[in-house]
Amino acid sequence: MKTHALDPVGVDVSDARIQDLTDDRIDEVRHLAAEHGVVVFRDQEIDDTAFEEFLRRLGAPVFTQGETPVDGHPDLNVITNAGRTTAPTSTFHVDTSYVADPPAYTALRAVTVPESGGQTLFSNQYRAWDTLPEDLRADLSTRTMTHVVTGLDLPDDAETSAEHPVVTVHPITGRSSLFLSTPKRCAAISGLSADETAETVARLYEHSTADENVHRHSWRPGDVVLWDNRCVMHRADHSGVVGERTMHRGMATDGRLTAAPHAPR
User: Where is the TauD/TfdA-like domain (predicted)?
Assistant: First the structure.
């Protein structure tokens, strides 16, 4: 596969059809996602069936309860501004981090690309961890964070809270990454008071999402974008969108969110 690294996170793949990837190439995609965080596939002519099959080859399908499924494809959900009178909102986050086994991968398939606007932003959480002050890294490496659900109407038996290490080691690259989500979902950090948690989360979030740590993906027809939730956060920029923006989203888990070497397990 021909690739071009994106700054400061991501890689562009220009010569691959995802429905034709061999098992070796799928493994290469896993490694590209692990190393670069985001993998952009251009000029894909696929339907939802092929999109689902691509995700199943990466791991077990995951669907976030409370989302709107794609008609005929219950493992996928629709993200759209069609029919809305107000623009959707989005903040940097990790998908479904409030469950014990969060999705390793998320992918979006561009169904309808707006005339302008509607970018998706990605933050480099490897870099976010590496550029924290050494004393803060030493302190956080022994702590866990409680992630909670927000903004979804879930059934009584749904998972709504999970505890994860603040820093994780990626099972493929062995690199440390800050595992963070939107502040409203970061409810508690072990050993810290509520005020200390809020202050620390705000500091980490601001640091992670600084402009120099973020890549903005501008959508084109035929784009499929895959990212590794273990080393990136993401958000959609819904400001200034002209025209319809519709994406189909799928997720997969491989059961490998790895704790840092010195973090409690």
Answer: 12-251
